[in-house]
Amino acid sequence: MTLPPAPTVNPLWSAPPPAGSEGARCSGCVWHYLGGRGKAVDRCRRHRNEAIDPRSPACPAYTAAVDCLTCGACCREAYHSVEVGPRDAFVRLHPDRVNARDGRLEITRSGDRCGCLAGGPGDYHCVVYADRPRTCRDFPAGEQSCVDARRRVGLTP
Ligand code: SF4
Ligand code: SF4
Question: In terms of domains, do 82 and 9 share one?
Answer without folding.
Answer: no
